[in-house]
Amino acid sequence: LPHLSLAACRNRDRTDIDTVVEICSPEVRKGLQRANWIVQTLVPEVYRLYDGNKEGVLKSPVSVCPASWGTLLVADKEKGKILSARLHYPVDVGEIVSGLSCPVAITYGHGLLLIADVGKQQILCSDLTGDHFLSPEKMTVKQLRKALKDRRLLPPGNNSKKGELQKALKSWMDANSTSDRNGQTKLHTVEIVNQPTIQATAVIFSEQGTDNFYAAEMSGQVHEISLTINRLNANANVLRSIDVTVGSLFGIVRTNRDSELYVSSSAVNGGLFRVNLATGHCECVLSNGSEDLQCVHGICAKMDGTVVMVDRGDHKVKEFKEDLDEVRVLAGSGRSGTEDGSETSASFSQPTAVCCEEGADTVYVLDTTIGRLKMITNTLALTTFLENLWKFLTAFQLTSEDVSGLEEAIDLTQSHYSFLEKASLKLKRLNRLKEDVIHLNPEYLKDIEVRSLLTLFVENFFSSMRGGNTITPTVLDFCRRFPRCTKELLKRVTKNPFNYFTNPKASYYVQPSMKDVLIQFSELAKLPKPSKGSLAPKQITELRQWASINGKSFRQNTTRNFSTKDKPGTLPLNVYEASPPKENTVDFTALLRESSTDGNKEREDSGQDRADIEILHPNGTFVLFPHICRPGSLPTSTFYIVKLLEDLPDDDHFAHVRTEWYAQDLVDPLLFTTTGKEYTVSKDGIKGTVHVTLIADDTIEITENDYYICLASLHASEDNILPFEEPEIDAEDDLDEREYESNRPKRSKRMTATACDFVYY
Questions:
Q1: pTM here?
Q2: How far is CA 653 from the centre of its chain?
Q3: Residues 33-46 pLDDT 10s
Q4: Is 122 exposed, middle or buried (0-12, 13-18, 19+ CB in 10 A)?
Q5: Other C-beta atoms within 10 Å of 369: how many?
Q6: Residue 527: helix, strand or coil by DSSP?
């Protein structure tokens, strides 16, 4: 493969024809054809200096899965985050979820992200599109009203604003949520009803969508689990399970057959297993330590059923074809390293997770030790694209001067059209241009310069079209300016009864002469004015709704926006090669053991500490709460008397408590009634204990003296001054200040100043 300059890999300027010609030259295409597969690092970016995708953005990536719109999701166990990698050039990396303990597996489906966190020994989910859980912050007024109306929280004729609707929905969510929910990271805990805990190390959604998913545990259990989301909580039930009899299951994929899965175990006696949850059958297809497989880790499946697996022990990525019962190496030289290149020269340090694009052969691999996301792609598509691009450039005389006229340009573009259907638009334009020229004068065909049709030569026209006060021109703006710009440009190259330029030396365009100009401006066809029309009110409403959602413009980065660090170089690529990254090998067996040990130790320590913690308020105590702490569904009251339904320890780790609330009666202020509903609230709202008398099962009574004590407790920090008391209090303050000043001793002028005599700002 000939050496390409760094400019050929870095330059993003589509008008730099020399770079494009260099990339798709026959010499480069021949070199690519000698390699079937190419391994390329995507994160961090190698050839472009980009802050969002630089060295260190990934520390210890352990799981990857494809998402929507050309995006990959990566779990970093050391950072405790889920990152998104949008497959642009360079790849745009962003943070999706944070605050995790040790995420080791993720899967995505229909906007829902499922996370297996072995540090917390939980399965968590995050709604990335807002279609599964209520999110008042992202909902429109119409959506808020519908959500409140469905829950009978919106009275008829209510015209509350968006902030009030959001507050009402949040109050209902806080009062009715039964699962742990992190408001900052938007994480929801999946509560598994019929099983206490599942320490999942691999998860994947079923083919039916997000209603079912499969989970593999560290202990060797594989479960089929149903998932139910009621827009507020996520509940799950284990439907059926199977024991693989070996641990360290880090990979799980579906097959084309119902209820059949492939799972991978990196244990010494592990390997690639085929399990059937319907029949309970489990079979070892490939064993670790064999000739075809040293130590498997992550796996994924292509559309044809081929299983792509990472051989962590052999530093290779391999394919297993079930119908042929064979294993072949997809990429990797077998030695530990960080090099990119062809499938035989590229090397991996500690490859772990792998995923495939749906309907494509491209494979993405995580190298955990060095924090790399790499792509393995076939060169056939690349060489075919470069070959057809070369034909297209040749049609416009950019690769050689052999193309003489419009006929040959149409033939080459027609050849290019068979590969790229979008080129049909260019082909139609060329044929339309040919018809217009023939209609005007057939002799003009021999004088047409095909190169003048390139974007390079019409940039000035586009700059004229962009002129105006509009920051982001719309299609309507371009349509309005097109006739005027076309007319002014034609005046410069045709014969007119007047001189277009008053100063030929200062003008950029050369004045036309009689020998160069064959047509008068008056002979040109004029663009007809479009007929008048109007839109229906329904169409206008739909346009406004579309514009409010999709019509928001944002500034685009251009070639001129980048700093000098992003400028392409002129030397060969190997001159710019960076130093190899630092290796940080992850022992997954120890990682899982530590997570399990830490979890058990934490529970033991928690149980021991609870025995030693003093109980602040025992179960059944009646306490006082102010009205600002009430759940949203309770009636308004001056204050509330709340019954504790569990012991409240004197420990900051216990922030919430289960309670039953009593609201003040509308007629008798000493009576309080309850609906019997349970609420989990923060203990910070407690203002003291209250002595009550039980009258009925749902009614309590307090004495008049206790009533005034409750009012005093709530307003202890507030000393409200009545209007008629203000002058008297001000006069007393002035008198006290004058008496203090008169009794203060006079200080001598020669007295040494102390720090107390200065005022510091």
A1: 0.61
A2: 32
A3: 888 899 999 998 87
A4: buried
A5: 20
A6: coil
